[in-house]
Amino acid sequence: MAEKPIGSIQRIVGPLVEAKGVTSAQMLELVYVGDERLVGEIIRINHDVAHIQVYEDTTGIRPGEPVYGSGMPLSLELGPGLIGTVYDGIQRPLEVLEAESGSFISRGINISALSRTKKWQFKPVLKLNDTVTPGLVIGTVQETSLIEHKVLVPPDIEGTITNIASAGEYPVDKVIATIKTKTGVKELPMFHRWPVRIGRPHKGKEELSIPLITGQRVIDTLFPIPKGGTVAVPGGFGTGKTMVQQALAKWCDADIIIFIGCGERGNEITDVLNEFPELIDPRTGKALMERSIIIANTSNMPVAAREASIYTGITMAEYYRDMGYNVAIMADSTSRWAEALRELSGRMEEMPADEGFPAYLPTRLAGFYERAGRVTNLAGTPGSVTVIGSVSPPGGDFSEPVTQHTKRFVRAFWALDRQLANARHYPSISWLDSYSEYVDEIAPWWEKNVDPEWRSLRNEIMELLQQESKLQQVVKLVGPDVLPDTQRLVLDTATYFKNAFLQQNAFDKIDMYSVVAKQVKMLRIILTFYHSGLKLIKKGATLVKIKQLPILSEMAKMKFSVANEEVEKLDDLLDRMRKTFSELELTYG
Amino acid sequence: MDKTSSLLAKREYNTVTGLDGPLLFIENIHNVGYNELVSLTDPQGKERLGTVLEAADGMAVIQVFEGTMGLSLKDTRVRFSGVPLQLGVSKDMLGRVFDGIGRPLDKLPAPMAVERRDINGQPINPSARDYPQKFIQTGISAIDGMNTLIRGQKLPIFSGSGLAHNKLAAQIARQAKILGEDSSFAVVFAAMGIKYDVAEYFIRNFEETGALENVVLFLNLADDPPIERLVTPRVALTCAEHLAFDHGMHVLVVMTDMSNYCESLREIATIRGDIPSRKGYPGYLYSDLASIFERAGIIKGKAGSITQMPILTMPNDDITHPVPDLTGFITEGQIVLERDLSRRGIYPPIAGLPSLSRLMKDGIGKGMTREDHPHLASQLFAAYSRVKDVRALASVIGEEELTPIDHTYLDFGKHFEDRFLSQREDENRDIDTTLDIGWQVLSSLPKDELYRMTEEEIQKFYGK
Ligand SMILES: Nc1ncnc2c1ncn2[C@@H]1O[C@H](COP(=O)(O)OP(=O)(O)OP(=O)(O)O)[C@@H](O)[C@H]1O
Ligand SMILES: [Mg+2]
Prior knowledge:
heterodimer; A: 589 residues; ten-stranded mixed β-sheet; 16 helices; B: Rossmann fold; 13 helices
């Protein structure tokens, strides 16, 4: 990289540095600050003064020290070797950093994101004299046992192949193709660079009709999202945002997972790093790490790099999308990212809007979520990026700016509820405050692939939950005794549904993940209980009598007792339940 | 670092141009680095310390720990040290008492430092961490049974004024131990703006248990300079890191009261004109607190650990106040003290539902505590949560109107609070005792209410 001095430091306030005498820098250019060459990015230019956000601790930096330009914006290295790696917010591989500088992160260390020594088995797909356009697959590399990496023509290159490597083992920086373009000959190694703040181009967005199956019942059944969709997970501290994100990272049926720990805890990253190589993906039989990339810019790491981390994540996601994969990205937490924006904006003495956040917060949020979607990529194949962003509203109050603005740009909302969390009802996704605008788009998939009555079952239980919440108002005032048995049955059904269906223990071997068939069958059993119970009550049975049926305790424990591989046991349970009720019915004539 | 500049840096200036609260503005200076340590001589000839908050061409903004009272523009001399605020660390700090920036208070000479370290530390590389999963037995049922403390965890106590947080913290510091292990244990105690008698209370406690030689105290008391509080936890953690990661000790860091720390931070922020977010606290309060709390943990390949127990008082018992709120967003759970329990004479008044230990799941169960522990804890939470609902209902419709099962829950609630939750200050229950009491109180509920327990567990433990 060509580095040249572009100015000298005149002021340092925390992560913000001002350089003067800057005449030849670009907006968003990557720069190196001071004698220690700390990584930074120009975020404002005013006459000859450049404002630089520095991605490392600025302690000890002095006015007068030089600033070096790199001539390019903050960019990622995109090529084989991303999967299974844990990066910081500006794509420094943390394991390599650890090997170089020990257990604590020190400053001014420059290491490449992709290993230059590791060799990959390259298989060419194109051949000499082929015409190439952006996004075409030049060749492939088996990146992990699960993921075939496609080496792509970078989005800004087209021409004719004048040379291509034969199959063989090469490091990422080895030139594997030479392309004659209008502007000259381009040599392509196995990786290319792409600026994090610019969305990668594609041929157009597609409709979102295929659900992202998460194995979490409250999500798949009540508030589903599609591949390529966007969802926010807001909740006060300890309500379960990270657990939801991790459950999705573990069990959802995306091809690639990108987990961004953005301003959160170090131990949560360690947890993922310990678990993912061990946990086996039920669909592929391979370790989850074989499909995951972790980005960790924890709360104690520099705040400017935290700001960059979500762009780093989404750019990697787009890159795999462009190979035709379905990528899911979890950003935990987008509030910490917004706070990083706020802090930098404050240091630049910009006019604050709501609660000190800069006025451009909504634009930035929109820009981020806009990069989600299901697209036809430049090579003409479908790929998707699903974004699941957690939001950490202060005091758990959803009226604060980040939650409110996020709501405008996502189409599903999983509201975590403090009361549920306190009662250890997990996941504490509120069935009253959450929504998914995708239900109608996704329903045909369920009806075709799982159960033709999916939509009506779902709507019915949603309605019962609404009824229950109204009835609870009455109960709170006068107690349940005044309600007729038909209404108390609604209460009981809702209670069964909450305990036996909605609650899902992330730590239980069987319960942590439910296949779609199990979900629908469980739902049907609970609704059958309701219908049969109602019929019985109308015939004169009492609810007390119904609740003594031993089969109900089987229903209550079915989520733990029936494993995903033996869902037919639920058919049997349903049969027996029907039989029990019709037998009882006989006694009432 | 080079630098010819470090020579220049030691130069002395008397070019102060402004004073405002704890801030000092100085001009006509050279080569001053961001965050560097400053010492100044006041007109009376006394030394004060500060750090550079903002460095610019020829000028700097300095926060003075002791405040600027008595300083004047003309007669204040300022020296720049060329390095950030450092603490000389050594194992000999054990058994010693220091002030809030690490100067001996016990009239003994400063311990011989093996190394001087930047008190801000450096972030632990997430991939270098080891996941905390060793159970620490505190001997307190509400904690061990339901909110288990794990070695390397950061678990704060959210309290209110007048509640028994000090008593509880002292009891934990006294009783905490890892089962079946005999490793070296130390307590680092950081006091920020607390009263002398509170500090006294802790010291006496450590003395009585003969543990004083394993304790390091850093005291910034109520009448000490408030700005100094901003460095006290960092100084304490720098010492803790040395003991833990260089000497392989298991260090429990008690920090009290974090609310005072946050107030000092707010004061500086306000004077500097930083944009406030909520209740006047600066937007970076979260990151600032995280830079303290994230220093807890365990590092691969190193023997020791840092467990943090910060204490804070919630203004008006309001858990949504920015200080507890942001703390809760950083720590790995919280022990919440409840005024209502306290009024009813229950000690420790640990609130059942809002308390949580997030690392508990990996440290309990078979091979660690007992196989029934996870379900038992979960069942106790569920049942106690029902108690709260029933009590709320009873307060509206009257106890007489409750159903029989609701009455059973009320009874359970009473047993739970009187027998499980309550214990004496000197009562050290081992984990088996805690779990057995848990079963005893649960056995006041009918078996089929125990929907979070397995059949086998009920067979084995119910009614025993
Ligand atoms: N599905 C679940 N199953 C079991 N326990 C859960 C579940 N979800 C949450 N919990 C419990 O709640 C705790 C807090 O959850 P989590 O860490 O996800 O909260 P959070 O919303 O991310 O909080 P913060 O904003 O502070 O990061 C967990 O440590 C766990 O004990
Ligand atoms: Mg979280």
